[in-house]
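ok so for the tutorial part 2 we go from a plain amino acid sequence to predicted structure tokens. step 1 is just haveing the sequence, like this:
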Amino acid sequence: PVIPDLATLAENIPTRELKMSTTLRDQFLSTLRIQPGAESTAEAVAIVPQDWQATGDWSFISLLCHRAFNTFRNQAAIQNFGIYYYGDFGPGDTLTAVSRTVVRGRLTWLQATRDSVLVAIATALYDDL
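step 2 — the prediction. this is what the tokens look like for a chain of 129 residues:
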């Protein structure tokens, strides 16, 4: 197979595909709502865009997690971050992420669901600031 020249690689990718992924991300973020709850709790809710390309795109879960974690502290303070995926989702699904600070505030745990069905679990370990 022919290996493309890295200098012209971006030119070889159809512009439509690049715009589509940016548009899907923007659509998802435009529906994102974060509501701080009780002490050390936050809920983030967003709707998966109505496009088949959004089916099972885990980057939506990552965005949701990072936005929820950011309600507690600056993301730059995250020392270790992990997401564990369990379920699928599709266009039009509402994703809900509930995060809680545990273990004296250094660890934040998040559970993402679709219609009360587990989709992902994420953890963030913050620097001891």
